[in-house]
Amino acid sequence: MRGRHAAGGWSPFWRDIILRTVLALLLVAMIIFIWWLFSDDDLFTEAVPTTSVAETTPTSEAVTNVTEPEAGTSTTTRPATTAAIEADTTTSTTAPVATTSTTTTTTVPPPLDPAQLVVRVLNANGVQGVAGRLSGRLEEAGYGVTAPDNHAQRLDVSRVWHRDGLSREAALLRDELVPDALVEGIPLEQEGIDIVVVLGRSFEE
What we know:
Blueprint: H1 12-38, H2 53-56, H3 60-67, H4 80-92, E1 118-123, H5 130-140, E2 144-145, E3 149-150, E4 159-162, H6 167-177, E5 182-185, E6 195-199
């Protein structure tokens, strides 16, 4: 007579039930995960409070109060930056500074009168009596004259020598009486003599 074996472990029926249950749960979990992954709605995020449009957007009445100009005023509005630039330009404009030019005028004294000058005539052309005759003409013109004399050497061109500061007076004398002469500073001053006239060969009476 065969003995009965005691049933060991889980029966095949229960194993199948548990296995199928686990597989079903895994399938459901996978479906939920895939649906959450591709869904537009975030089920796990709390709703973020939004600001009401009425709170952030100014009402039409407020906009009207801001933009509507008062009666009798200009409707043209300028940006604040433009007005600030114009104001800065107006205030930074410097007034023209009046410049005064000082002109220094040097007063030149008139030439000395012929009566204040002493002239000596020297003969350097060899024509006898020419120095005496010119001395007479100078005296008639109002000059003070000394006795005429001969020059140490002959000259081709006449000279009118003058002391320092008497160049204008010497030029006037030359223009009036010895137009062919050169006006030069006196090479050797003589006491009491202001101008020396040396008559060269170019001199014509």
